[in-house]
Design brief:
Heat Shock Protein 90; 3 domains; 386 residues; Single alpha-helices involved in coiled-coils or other helix-helix interfaces; rod-shaped
Length: 386
């Protein structure tokens, strides 16, 4: 069973209905008290209808109480109540309280019922209005329904507008939830791709380190008797290489653990912080085009690409470098320019950045001239995210 909200906890507890608010109770009570006051003659020059009329008139206001729960039943109750008051009680002024009840039920029918039920509901309310026109001296005649029915239709139309608005809001909430789930899925895919790259780098790193250890062990064994000093150096090299490998593996395993504490994935607007933490030369950040939020995977990859490319810049405080981010209509361009490290040192970072770009269907172009490197990355923005 659906739990009652704060708005209707009282009626859920007292009346056993969850789709009933305090406003329904208050409106029914106010209209009923006013109707009783009208028919008992306290504020009217017409005859006092007595307590019989006071009880009967509740049939024309009380259904407001369950109108939101059972709209058609409330409309039928209003029609039956109007007919009984006309036949059993006769001519008394009741319209000041009973017409608002009809209009409210018309609004509820419009906001809660389907088209076929709406037609049934308006027919029942029309019967109520005709009976009131016959039995209420202030309304005069049944022909008053010619005016009151369109007014009821106007209230019903307002209810239909509310129903349409609520349906659109519900649809937007569903689409928002779907988009949020898609963004989370894209972010997870980007993280998985990052982990796959790290695992590939780890395999290559281990292969190189084991090769170094094997070479050092072979050299040490060959010189163990003839050149003990060189053999000792080889074994020291094996020890250092082993420690370096173990440290690197611990770092990688820690980053791949699913249960490790995580932080929000970095995005392009955090590049200024990344650049400020860089040990390379003085770097200037330039943002061009129409800055906007991109898909989470693309935001993360753009950040990582710049992070990799910063490793290609020389740590020279006397030179200047620049990082350019250009938001084109259908693509993201990243440009890193500055004094370069040695080609052998830049190659791993360029390879990692290229993998990131290719993951999104992008390209990387890097030129080195007279010690100055210019790297440009072009990544297309998926259709629908432009």
């Amino acid at each position: 069973m659906r739990q009652p909200t704060r708005r209707n906890w009282f009626t859920a507890l007292v009346l056993g209905q969850h789709d009933l608010g305090i406003g329904d109770v208050a409106l029914a009570v106010v209209l009923s008290l006013y109707a009783v006051d009208l028919v008992t003659g306290h504020n009217s020059k017409h005859l006092d209808g007595g307590w019989t009329a006071a009880v009967a008139v509740l049939l024309m206001t009380g259904p407001v109480l369950f109108a939101r729960w059972q709209p058609l039943a409330a409309a039928a109750a209003l029609a039956l109540g109007a007919g009984l008051n006309w036949i059993l009680i006769g001519h008394l002024i009741r319209c000041g309280a009973t017409l608002p009840a009809v209009f409210y039920v018309a609004f509820v029918i419009g906001s809660r019922c389907h088209r076929r039920d709406v037609m049934v509901g308006i027919a029942l309310l029309a019967v109520s209005l005709v009976c009131q026109g016959w039995s209420d001296p202030k309304l005069g005649s049944p022909s008053v329904a010619i005016v009151m029915v369109p007014i009821s239709l106007a209230f019903m139309g307002a209810g239909r507008l509310l129903r349409s608005r609520n349906a659109k809001i519900s649809e937007l909430e569903i689409r928002t939830a779907e988009l949020r789930a898609q963004r989370e899925l894209n972010a997870k895919m980007a993280v998985d791709a990052d982990r796959a790259r790290i695992a590939g780098d780890l395999d290559e790193f281990l292969h190189d380190q084991v090769t170094k250890i094997a070479s050092a062990a072979s050299a040490g064994r060959a010189t163990l008797e003839s050149q003990p000093d060189e053999a000792q150096d080889a074994f020291v090299s094996i020890q250092e290489t082993g420690r370096e490998t173990l440290t690197h593996m611990r770092d990688v395993v820690r980053s791949l653990q699913d249960n490790a504490p995580t932080e929000p994935q970095p995005v392009l607007r955090q590049l200024d912080r990344l650049i400020s933490q860089s040990a390379s030369s003085e770097i200037q950040l330039q943002v061009n085009g129409d800055p906007r939020m991109l898909p989470p995977g693309l935001e993360l990859s753009g950040y990582r690409i710049v992070e990799h490319l910063l490793l290609t810049l020389a740590e020279d405080g006397s030179s200047r470098a620049s990082v350019g981010v250009t938001f084109q209509p259908d693509a993201l361009e990243l440009r890193v320019v500055g004094a370069s490290v040695r080609e052998s040192d830049a190659r791993p970072a360029l390879a990692a950045a290229t993998e990131r770009a290719v993951l999104h269907g992008g390209t990387l172009r890097s030129n080195l001239s007279k010690g100055l490197r210019e790297t440009v990355v072009q990544i297309p923005i998926p259709l629908g995210q432009v």
